[in-house]
Fold this protein.
Amino acid sequence: MSAGFRFSRAWSIARKEVRHVRRDPFTLATALGLPILLVVFFGYAIDFNVKDIHMIAADRDNTRASREWLKNFTSSRFFKLEPADPGQDPQSALDTEQAKGVIIIEPGFGNDLGAGRPAEVQILLDGADNSTTGIISGYLIGIQQAAWKKISSGPRVQPLSLQTRFLFNQEQNSRWFVVSGLVVVVIGVLSILLTALTVAREWETGSMELLLSTPVRPLEIIFGKLAPYLGLVLVSVVMVYLVARIQFGLPFMGNHLLFLAGILLFLCLCLAQGLLISVITRQQQLAMQLSFISGLLPTLLLSGFIFPIESMPPFFQYLTYILAPRWFMVISRGLFLKGVGLLELAQPLFMLLLLNLIMMGLALKRFKKDLEP
Amino acid sequence: MRKQAWAVEVKELTIRFGDFTAVDNISFAVKPGEIFGFLGANGAGKTTTIRTLCGLLVPTSGSARVAGLDFKSGVQALKSKVGYMSQRFTLYNDLTISENMAFAASLRKLKPGVLQSRTRELFKFVEFDYPVKTLVKNLPGGIKQQLSLAASLLHNPEIVFLDEPTAGVSPVIRNKFWALIRKLARAGKTMFVTTHYLQEAEECNRIALMREGRIIALDTPQRLKTQAFPEPLIEINPEVGGSRQWVEKLKLDPRIGCIQPYGRRYHVLIQNQAGWKKVARTMPKSLKTRPIQPSLEDVFIRLVEGGRT
Amino acid sequence: MSQISIQIKNLSKRLGPNQALAGITASFEPALLYGLIGPDGAGKTTLMRILMGLLFPDSGECAYLDNHQTVAFERVRSSIAYMPQQQSLYPDLSVAEHLEFFRDLYLISGKVFQKRRAELLHLTRMEPFQDRPAGKLSGGMYKKLGLMCALLQSPDVVLLDEPTNGVDPISRREFWDLLYRLIRQKILVIMSTAYMDEAERCSRVLVLDEGKIIAAGEPLSVLKQEKAGNFEELFLQRQKAGRR
Ligand SMILES: Nc1ncnc2c1ncn2[C@@H]1O[C@H](COP(=O)(O)OP(=O)(O)OP(=O)(O)O)[C@@H](O)[C@H]1O
Ligand SMILES: [Mg+2]
């Protein structure tokens, strides 16, 4: 009688969930308010525009090699390079906030380079300005790689690694860059939080005991609980999309169907993650904390949303491979700004699918039909 | 200063939720040191009244004075004079006994030093002897109730409102609870108690009976009984099983007023003495009958039901 | 029509620091009403949860028989109605919405539901309060709603964990009429209760203490055997004798 999956039961759970959401102002406010807040916050309040960053260069080597190396900065539109005042400690420029960064090339740079020894350049950044440091250091690495290829013997290579990162954002509009990543943050935070709370609430208030005593199957509970949040988060995503397109004039160069596929994959994964959190914690407060940690941190810090992955320490770079936000970030930005196709997105889509299977499997396995601790 | 006349004085109190009237124009007064039973059917408005008297709900109309204070002078002063044990469990399951007590004390602005001695004193008074480091969730239900009671007494209130303190509690602990309530009343505290165990209510000095937001009777248990039952009442005690058919037959008999099960026994209201004698003669020997005093449960059923079977 | 009986043998269960059940053997037959009574922490709720498949025993077995044929628990699960002791309803859903929700979970057809629902609402005198959310019901009304949700389906086994706590004496009587009706339909009913007069009205009682059955049988014979006039006395005597 109760053997198979019954859509009607899953549906009734979903309907009950919709009622909860409709009557709980907190959930609705979070689901619809948070995306708007994020868009406004990242779109307006923070200026990520890193054009014309003031840099001071103290070239104490003053050889052809060092000058050549520095030229990479002067030719870049992002930096405004000024020679250091000889009588002054270049570092003081940072303290007085005359510059965001200081480049110091000690004597012997050219010699080392010529002799094939590792040559050192010292770069000091203003760490107090958190939001731009990450970006600057990302640029620097790109520049450095390009410069290295140029200076070190061998064929002169175009500084491609620098250029490619921004080719798609031709207007150098960092606002676009950020807003196109917001979809990732909105899904990543909202869906994990909302599902974690809803299932944990059933445990905490004791209603799970009654629910589990009915013929309802775990899969029906899961399906019924997740479907409404899937819908709710999709609405938030559409809101972010519209605001991005209309308010910030963001282009959308790719295929909308591909975008939808990516969104659904990432969304399902996040829902499964929220579910996993709630079946493990069974407490709303703990579930909330865990979902903030496991939802917010990876999407904000380890997805390339603000801090470029290439500029992370190797450990974190590898870590991002198993974090879904990274892959969805590639999809989202690729479709908004670059107009990439299925071929380029095959890898991120595949990774999302893989992670999805793992997360769903874990959540299903941990979802119990009993009250054992 | 003149000793205050009433511990609780309620005049024409009405409480509405939207357009639903939960408490409908009730008036009553409770003497200091009295055990006052507040009985009534589910949803009659007992909890609502108590919550109002504790300053947790604002009355729609009417007035109330509790411990000599009315609500116009603010509920803050009131809160130090009344203790409230809610019908719902209000302690924190994930805290230990002592943490819960400390939290309850901090809500009432008790000094830590006072808390220590007061807790010790109270636990001795309520004969509570669990290690204070135990998590509340690991306590059996009746013990939790005892702890809730202790928490509501922390600030040494004059008037204690107990909303179904013994719901779901086993007979032994229930006895202990009532011994405590008597002890507190002897110590001069006013005990305002609701319960659905009407046997317990026999211990009250006076009882108010509520139905659908109104007080339909208010008196001592004894007087309530004699007023509600001018007719005699008979108990039938079946000594063996299989008496149910008989009882079903009696139910249909027009000479019998009404018949109510009490455990294995039955209480039969006699409306026609001569008729009953005839019926009794036909009954098998195993059904022992004897005239009895009505219990408060009989009174409750009769008054709240309005005499309907 | 299936008639389910349950046989438990030597059930033991440890929960955290407490030995909730310490070797319980009993059998529950259809068309009878079993009352579990005992002091706090005697193991009543744990036994109920094991019978409902919500907890698993550490040792011992729990067998379900349908017309004397052993069947797997999953086969009977959907025909067991269960009412937990702790609060388990949704405060923001109304009485009517709760009933509809459980109708859907139990796949009850519209016609049957209408009849059943009207019956239950009448019995519990909750008709006027159908639109009130569970969070705004009085304590006893909340209990009654829980009861309605459990009894909405037509089960073969009914497990009720202290269903009448906080229910007023009149509704309690009406509830007992309903229980008798259930056992006349050959349903197995197991309930725990803290009302000792209710214990006397059961077909069989199991007196539990500290995870063990200390007496079982027809109420009258248990009382005779323990030399007590009623169950209240039984527990007070035991306490006096120092056995808690
Ligand atoms: N916040 C609220 N909003 C709407 N109605 C309410 C609210 N609180 C209580 N009620 C209603 O007021 C009535 C009285 O409730 P109350 O809790 O006072 O009953 P009670 O006498 O304590 O019953 P019980 O014996 O079941 O505990 C009930 O019908 C209840 O549903
Ligand atoms: Mg109440």
In short: The radius of gyration of chain B is 22 Å. The CA atoms of residues 146 and 206 of chain B lie 24 Å apart. Chain B touches chain C through 39 residues (CB under 8 Å).
